[in-house]
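Agenda item 2: nicotinamide-adenine-dinucleotide complex prediction
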Amino acid sequence: MTDTNFQYIDGEWTDGESTDEIAVRNPAAPAEPVVTFDGASRAQAVRAVTAADDASEEWSNTAPSERDSLLYDVADRIEARQEELAETLTREEGKPISSSRGEVGRAAEIFRFFAGYARSATGDTIPSNDPDTFTYTFREPLGVVTIVTPWNFPIATPSWKLATALSTGNTVVFKPSSETPMIARLLVQILDEAGVLDGVVNLVVGAGSTVGDELTTNERVDGVSFTGSTDTGQHIADTVADRIPVQTEMGGKNPLVVLPDADIDAAAEAAIGGAFGGTGQACTATSRLLVHEDIADELTEAVVERAESLTIGPGMEDPDMGPAVSAGEDESNFHYIDVAADEGATLVSGGDRPAEMESGYFIEPTVFTDVHSEMRIAQEEVFGPVLSIIEVGDFEEAVSVANDVDFGLSASIFTSDMARARAFTEQVEAGVIKVNGTTTGSQIQLPFGGMKASSAETQKEMGQRAYEFYTHEKVVYRTDP
Ligand code: NAD
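Presented output:
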């Protein structure tokens, strides 16, 4: 079925004008097309940026109370359509329906949280050395912000970028992943129905190499907020970061360290949730389990037992684990399983497609032992449900292995020794650190972002100060005549 009206430019829904066909298939049953349509052309990307630029002055001058009301209204509308949004998300991305409902609920929570920014993204008054001079700072919007997002949290990630950008008075061109265009379109429809002014939000769905390049390099764009793979993020940063603010949140290879004094059952639960939740398709997924050699056998057994009890199936049946999102991710998962085996790691669980599930992109939760830090399986982001267990001899080795990767997104330690836990938080190279918790999961009132190859480390997303990326800070010395 060819669908229409996937692009939203200057307040009008329209068809893509390129010859790139975007075809989304149900990852649980790929023979079933979910939607097919034409992607946007480069000229449409230019029109979207122009519309956003033309709308910028009016939107930035709207009363904060108006922006705040709009975003609250969007939150209410998301909640009112929760089931429709969740089913759409599961059909195109594949995640279990209860996870989709949770993500949609979170999107509503995000719009409410950031609605408050419209009135509270304040500057400071700072004492001046000169009694006749009043000194203060204030913030103003960047202008036109391009928002580029991946498919794995296809409503939550765009929501926190859109809500922050809009509340602080920016106009937006939103380019979602072509794997999840339907949920993106629904979100923008909701903004449209809530009454966002023409040109303030634009949706451009198309190929990264054409519309993505235009939307990041166009001279009328004043900032780019990107979430996705490290390769794409670095390409964008290399291309435009010398001219405009660029925020990039990228891949991870997240370690979970377990010391002998840990609660082993709790650690095993956290490893399972972190490695296999969302089919391992989270930037914060637990990819490496760094376990002290004294408890390695016990923890491995606890992890394998739990991994083998997970249910796998189509997201609409609400299993523990749905399929991988696409043929490409499916292929990559099995490729990494071969790589690990060829490197000499020992497969102790999974590694196959589940029996009688040949038609979808399903994969068993997979656990390898005998993994060493220099192996590719311990260094490269897999982005699927593949957990590598690495034995370490002591805390110092655990920290050294944890840091022995290019990435630095999230990390966790399980221990009952709080001095050790504190040393870990200080020594581990990660932007988000848990003590006795999963590497995944975050709360919107806390800042989120990585280090090293996981982030450009400009400003964090979410949290009390996420507005910093979306605004210029100006400092004023005012001497009255
Ligand atoms: P991706 O980099 O392939 O695509 C991300 C987005 O960039 C898509 O919308 C894509 O169309 C667009 N894009 C591609 N080329 C572009 C270009 N030249 N210019 C502009 N845009 C372009 O990533 P993906 O496969 O969609 O997502 C998975 C990756 O995202 C993983 O590496 C994961 O770790 C990462 N991720 C990171 C975070 C985080 O917060 N750190 C969160 C979620 C996902």
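Discussion summary: The first strand starts at residue 7 and ends at 9.
Owner for follow-up: CH.
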